[in-house]
Amino acid sequence: MLIYVVFSKEITFDSFRKIPAAYFIIGPLGYFVYSVAITQSSRAFDSISETTILNNTWPVFTVLFADLFLIKAKKSRAARGIEGLGIFMSFLSVIILVSGGNFASLQLEIRGILWGLLAGISYGLFGAYSGIVNRDEQKVFLFTAIALSLLLISIPAAIESRHSGPLTVLDIAVAFSMGALLDGLGYILWTRAIRLSKERKTRVSTIASLMFFLPFINLAIVRFVLDEQQLFQPYFMLSLILILGSTYLIQKAAWIAKHLSRFLQYKSKPKPG
Protein backbone atom coordinates (compact mmCIF):
# COMPACT_ATOMS: atom_id res chain seq x y z
CA MET A 1 0.00 0.00 0.00
CA LEU A 2 2.90 2.35 0.72
CA ILE A 3 4.37 1.63 -2.73
CA TYR A 4 0.95 2.28 -4.28
CA VAL A 5 0.68 5.67 -2.55
CA VAL A 6 4.28 6.79 -3.11
CA PHE A 7 4.30 6.02 -6.83
CA SER A 8 0.86 7.54 -7.38
CA LYS A 9 1.19 10.85 -9.19
CA GLU A 10 -2.29 12.10 -8.30
CA ILE A 11 -1.53 12.80 -4.64
CA THR A 12 1.29 14.30 -2.59
CA PHE A 13 2.29 14.17 1.06
CA ASP A 14 0.28 17.37 1.57
CA SER A 15 -2.80 15.23 1.05
CA PHE A 16 -2.19 13.63 4.45
CA ARG A 17 -2.19 16.90 6.38
CA LYS A 18 -5.96 17.10 6.72
CA ILE A 19 -7.36 13.60 7.04
CA PRO A 20 -11.16 13.46 7.68
CA ALA A 21 -12.11 12.08 11.08
CA ALA A 22 -14.34 9.49 9.38
CA TYR A 23 -11.24 7.80 7.95
CA PHE A 24 -10.06 6.98 11.48
CA ILE A 25 -13.47 5.46 12.32
CA ILE A 26 -14.36 3.61 9.12
CA GLY A 27 -10.81 2.69 8.08
CA PRO A 28 -10.07 0.14 10.85
CA LEU A 29 -13.37 -1.64 10.12
CA GLY A 30 -12.05 -3.00 6.84
CA TYR A 31 -8.73 -4.24 8.16
CA PHE A 32 -8.44 -4.45 11.96
CA VAL A 33 -12.05 -5.25 12.98
CA TYR A 34 -12.59 -7.58 10.02
CA SER A 35 -9.35 -9.53 10.61
CA VAL A 36 -9.94 -9.96 14.35
CA ALA A 37 -13.61 -10.92 13.87
CA ILE A 38 -12.98 -13.49 11.15
CA THR A 39 -10.14 -15.04 13.17
CA GLN A 40 -12.25 -15.31 16.33
CA SER A 41 -15.12 -16.81 14.33
CA SER A 42 -12.88 -19.52 12.87
CA ARG A 43 -11.63 -20.38 16.37
CA ALA A 44 -15.17 -20.82 17.69
CA PHE A 45 -16.03 -23.59 15.20
CA ASP A 46 -14.50 -27.04 14.79
CA SER A 47 -14.29 -26.51 11.01
CA ILE A 48 -13.77 -23.57 8.67
CA SER A 49 -17.05 -24.16 6.77
CA GLU A 50 -19.25 -22.01 8.99
CA THR A 51 -16.78 -19.14 9.03
CA THR A 52 -16.49 -19.31 5.25
CA ILE A 53 -20.26 -18.92 4.94
CA LEU A 54 -20.36 -16.03 7.40
CA ASN A 55 -17.40 -14.39 5.68
CA ASN A 56 -19.40 -14.32 2.45
CA THR A 57 -22.03 -12.06 4.01
CA TRP A 58 -19.88 -9.01 3.24
CA PRO A 59 -21.23 -8.56 -0.32
CA VAL A 60 -24.76 -8.61 1.16
CA PHE A 61 -23.90 -5.97 3.74
CA THR A 62 -22.07 -3.91 1.11
CA VAL A 63 -25.23 -3.72 -0.99
CA LEU A 64 -27.34 -3.01 2.10
CA PHE A 65 -25.21 -0.13 3.36
CA ALA A 66 -24.64 1.28 -0.12
CA ASP A 67 -28.35 1.34 -0.95
CA LEU A 68 -29.74 2.42 2.40
CA PHE A 69 -27.16 4.82 3.77
CA LEU A 70 -24.44 5.84 1.37
CA ILE A 71 -24.98 5.44 -2.35
CA LYS A 72 -28.64 5.99 -3.09
CA ALA A 73 -29.68 4.98 -6.57
CA LYS A 74 -33.13 5.36 -8.11
CA LYS A 75 -34.68 1.92 -8.33
CA SER A 76 -38.24 0.69 -8.39
CA ARG A 77 -39.55 -1.54 -5.65
CA ALA A 78 -39.80 -4.39 -8.14
CA ALA A 79 -36.14 -3.97 -9.14
CA ARG A 80 -35.08 -3.91 -5.49
CA GLY A 81 -37.13 -7.03 -4.83
CA ILE A 82 -35.54 -8.87 -7.75
CA GLU A 83 -32.07 -7.83 -6.58
CA GLY A 84 -32.93 -9.03 -3.07
CA LEU A 85 -34.00 -12.39 -4.45
CA GLY A 86 -30.77 -12.61 -6.42
CA ILE A 87 -28.65 -11.82 -3.37
CA PHE A 88 -30.53 -14.47 -1.37
CA MET A 89 -29.93 -17.06 -4.11
CA SER A 90 -26.24 -16.13 -4.19
CA PHE A 91 -25.85 -16.59 -0.46
CA LEU A 92 -27.83 -19.85 -0.56
CA SER A 93 -25.47 -21.15 -3.25
CA VAL A 94 -22.51 -20.46 -0.96
CA ILE A 95 -24.19 -22.30 1.94
CA ILE A 96 -24.88 -25.35 -0.28
CA LEU A 97 -21.35 -25.28 -1.66
CA VAL A 98 -19.58 -25.01 1.69
CA SER A 99 -21.84 -27.50 3.50
CA GLY A 100 -21.69 -29.99 0.64
CA GLY A 101 -25.48 -29.96 0.53
CA ASN A 102 -25.68 -31.28 4.11
CA PHE A 103 -27.13 -28.46 6.21
CA ALA A 104 -27.18 -30.70 9.30
CA SER A 105 -23.37 -30.70 9.30
CA LEU A 106 -23.27 -26.99 10.11
CA GLN A 107 -22.75 -26.04 13.72
CA LEU A 108 -24.81 -23.52 15.70
CA GLU A 109 -22.18 -21.67 17.70
CA ILE A 110 -23.58 -18.28 18.77
CA ARG A 111 -20.19 -16.76 19.56
CA GLY A 112 -18.76 -17.83 16.21
CA ILE A 113 -21.85 -16.61 14.36
CA LEU A 114 -21.72 -13.18 16.00
CA TRP A 115 -18.01 -12.79 15.24
CA GLY A 116 -18.59 -13.88 11.64
CA LEU A 117 -21.47 -11.45 11.17
CA LEU A 118 -19.36 -8.67 12.68
CA ALA A 119 -16.71 -9.40 10.05
CA GLY A 120 -19.28 -9.19 7.25
CA ILE A 121 -20.86 -6.01 8.62
CA SER A 122 -17.55 -4.22 9.20
CA TYR A 123 -16.16 -5.00 5.75
CA GLY A 124 -19.51 -4.23 4.12
CA LEU A 125 -19.60 -0.77 5.73
CA PHE A 126 -15.95 -0.21 4.82
CA GLY A 127 -16.58 -1.10 1.18
CA ALA A 128 -19.76 0.95 0.90
CA TYR A 129 -18.09 4.01 2.44
CA SER A 130 -15.20 3.75 -0.02
CA GLY A 131 -17.74 4.40 -2.76
CA ILE A 132 -18.32 7.99 -1.64
CA VAL A 133 -14.59 8.76 -1.43
CA ASN A 134 -13.33 10.36 -4.64
CA ARG A 135 -10.42 9.07 -6.70
CA ASP A 136 -7.61 11.10 -5.11
CA GLU A 137 -8.91 10.76 -1.54
CA GLN A 138 -9.36 7.00 -1.87
CA LYS A 139 -5.61 6.39 -1.76
CA VAL A 140 -5.35 8.48 1.40
CA PHE A 141 -8.33 6.60 2.85
CA LEU A 142 -6.80 3.17 2.18
CA PHE A 143 -3.37 4.14 3.48
CA THR A 144 -4.85 5.66 6.63
CA ALA A 145 -7.01 2.58 7.17
CA ILE A 146 -4.15 0.11 6.88
CA ALA A 147 -1.67 2.24 8.86
CA LEU A 148 -4.07 2.67 11.78
CA SER A 149 -5.10 -0.99 11.64
CA LEU A 150 -1.43 -2.00 11.71
CA LEU A 151 -0.98 -0.08 14.95
CA LEU A 152 -4.14 -1.56 16.48
CA ILE A 153 -3.36 -5.14 15.43
CA SER A 154 0.12 -4.93 16.95
CA ILE A 155 -1.42 -5.11 20.44
CA PRO A 156 -3.19 -8.50 20.14
CA ALA A 157 -0.34 -9.71 17.90
CA ALA A 158 2.20 -8.99 20.64
CA ILE A 159 0.05 -10.82 23.20
CA GLU A 160 -0.50 -13.89 21.03
CA SER A 161 3.09 -14.09 19.85
CA ARG A 162 4.03 -15.47 23.25
CA HIS A 163 1.82 -18.52 22.65
CA SER A 164 2.88 -19.25 19.08
CA GLY A 165 5.83 -21.28 17.90
CA PRO A 166 8.70 -20.03 15.75
CA LEU A 167 7.74 -18.87 12.25
CA THR A 168 9.11 -20.77 9.29
CA VAL A 169 10.09 -19.30 5.94
CA LEU A 170 6.87 -20.76 4.48
CA ASP A 171 4.79 -19.05 7.19
CA ILE A 172 6.35 -15.69 6.37
CA ALA A 173 5.99 -16.23 2.61
CA VAL A 174 2.29 -17.12 2.94
CA ALA A 175 1.63 -14.13 5.21
CA PHE A 176 3.46 -11.79 2.84
CA SER A 177 1.58 -13.14 -0.18
CA MET A 178 -1.80 -12.82 1.53
CA GLY A 179 -0.97 -9.29 2.63
CA ALA A 180 0.16 -8.17 -0.80
CA LEU A 181 -2.63 -9.87 -2.77
CA LEU A 182 -5.60 -9.71 -0.38
CA ASP A 183 -5.01 -6.71 1.89
CA GLY A 184 -3.18 -4.77 -0.80
CA LEU A 185 -4.18 -5.44 -4.39
CA GLY A 186 -7.56 -6.90 -3.48
CA TYR A 187 -8.60 -3.87 -1.42
CA ILE A 188 -7.36 -1.44 -4.10
CA LEU A 189 -9.36 -3.15 -6.85
CA TRP A 190 -12.52 -3.64 -4.76
CA THR A 191 -12.72 -0.07 -3.44
CA ARG A 192 -12.05 1.24 -6.95
CA ALA A 193 -14.87 -0.92 -8.32
CA ILE A 194 -17.27 0.48 -5.70
CA ARG A 195 -16.21 4.05 -6.49
CA LEU A 196 -16.58 3.54 -10.24
CA SER A 197 -20.06 2.08 -9.78
CA LYS A 198 -21.09 5.29 -8.03
CA GLU A 199 -19.42 7.57 -10.56
CA ARG A 200 -21.05 5.74 -13.48
CA LYS A 201 -24.37 5.54 -11.62
CA THR A 202 -24.59 1.77 -11.76
CA ARG A 203 -25.98 -0.41 -8.99
CA VAL A 204 -23.50 -1.69 -6.41
CA SER A 205 -25.33 -5.01 -6.38
CA THR A 206 -24.24 -5.69 -9.97
CA ILE A 207 -20.59 -5.91 -8.93
CA ALA A 208 -21.13 -7.23 -5.40
CA SER A 209 -23.00 -10.24 -6.80
CA LEU A 210 -19.90 -11.25 -8.77
CA MET A 211 -18.01 -11.73 -5.49
CA PHE A 212 -20.08 -14.82 -4.77
CA PHE A 213 -18.13 -16.55 -7.53
CA LEU A 214 -15.02 -16.49 -5.32
CA PRO A 215 -15.83 -19.75 -3.44
CA PHE A 216 -16.29 -21.50 -6.80
CA ILE A 217 -12.98 -20.13 -8.06
CA ASN A 218 -11.28 -21.26 -4.84
CA LEU A 219 -12.74 -24.75 -5.20
CA ALA A 220 -11.62 -24.91 -8.82
CA ILE A 221 -8.09 -24.02 -7.77
CA VAL A 222 -8.20 -26.70 -5.08
CA ARG A 223 -9.43 -29.17 -7.70
CA PHE A 224 -6.47 -28.62 -10.00
CA VAL A 225 -3.85 -28.28 -7.26
CA LEU A 226 -4.97 -31.05 -4.89
CA ASP A 227 -6.95 -33.16 -7.35
CA GLU A 228 -10.17 -32.92 -5.31
CA GLN A 229 -13.42 -34.27 -6.76
CA GLN A 230 -16.00 -31.76 -5.42
CA LEU A 231 -16.53 -30.21 -8.84
CA PHE A 232 -18.29 -33.37 -10.01
CA GLN A 233 -20.74 -33.62 -7.09
CA PRO A 234 -24.48 -32.80 -7.57
CA TYR A 235 -24.45 -30.13 -4.85
CA PHE A 236 -21.71 -28.26 -6.71
CA MET A 237 -23.78 -28.15 -9.91
CA LEU A 238 -26.82 -26.98 -7.93
CA SER A 239 -24.76 -24.21 -6.32
CA LEU A 240 -23.37 -23.19 -9.68
CA ILE A 241 -26.85 -23.00 -11.23
CA LEU A 242 -28.05 -20.86 -8.31
CA ILE A 243 -25.12 -18.44 -8.54
CA LEU A 244 -25.49 -18.09 -12.31
CA GLY A 245 -29.22 -17.53 -11.99
CA SER A 246 -28.81 -15.02 -9.17
CA THR A 247 -26.17 -13.09 -11.09
CA TYR A 248 -28.49 -12.84 -14.09
CA LEU A 249 -31.35 -11.60 -11.89
CA ILE A 250 -29.19 -8.93 -10.28
CA GLN A 251 -27.58 -7.78 -13.50
CA LYS A 252 -30.94 -7.58 -15.31
CA ALA A 253 -33.11 -6.50 -12.33
CA ALA A 254 -34.22 -3.20 -13.88
CA TRP A 255 -34.96 -4.82 -17.26
CA ILE A 256 -36.89 -7.71 -15.68
CA ALA A 257 -38.87 -5.32 -13.45
CA LYS A 258 -39.76 -3.14 -16.44
CA HIS A 259 -41.05 -6.01 -18.57
CA LEU A 260 -42.78 -7.62 -15.59
CA SER A 261 -44.62 -4.36 -14.96
CA ARG A 262 -45.72 -4.19 -18.60
CA PHE A 263 -46.89 -7.79 -18.49
CA LEU A 264 -48.96 -7.20 -15.34
CA GLN A 265 -50.48 -4.05 -16.83
CA TYR A 266 -51.41 -5.97 -19.96
CA LYS A 267 -52.99 -8.75 -17.88
CA SER A 268 -54.97 -6.24 -15.81
CA LYS A 269 -56.52 -4.49 -18.85
CA PRO A 270 -60.17 -5.38 -19.44
CA LYS A 271 -60.63 -7.54 -22.50
CA PRO A 272 -62.98 -6.23 -25.22
CA GLY A 273 -66.36 -7.95 -25.49
Describe the protein in words.
The chain has one domain (2-8, 21-158, 179-258). Helices cover 74% and strands 0% of the residues. It has 12 helices and no strands. The protein has helices at 2-6, 21-44, 49-55, 58-70, 77-99, 110-130, 135-160, 169-199, 204-208, 214-226, 234-251, 253-268. α2 crosses α7 and α3 (49-55) packs antiparallel against α5. The protein is globular. The mean pLDDT is 80.
Provide the fold topology.
Elements: H1 2-6, H2 21-44, H3 49-55, H4 58-70, H5 77-99, H6 110-130, H7 135-160, H8 169-199, H9 204-208, H10 214-226, H11 234-251, H12 253-268
Helix pairs in contact: 2-6, 2-7, 3-5, 3-6, 4-6, 5-11, 5-12, 7-8
What percentage of residues falls in helices of 4 or more residues? over 70%
Give the total of beta strands: 0
Count of alpha/pi helices: 12
**So what's the overall shape?**
globular
Topology as a string of helices (H) and strands (E): HHHHHHHHHHHH
Distance between the termini: 72 Å
> How is the main sheet built?
none
Percent of residues in beta strands: under 5%
What class, by secondary structure content? mainly alpha
Low-confidence stretches: none
Domain module count: 1
Radius of gyration: 21 Å
Mean model confidence by pLDDT: 80
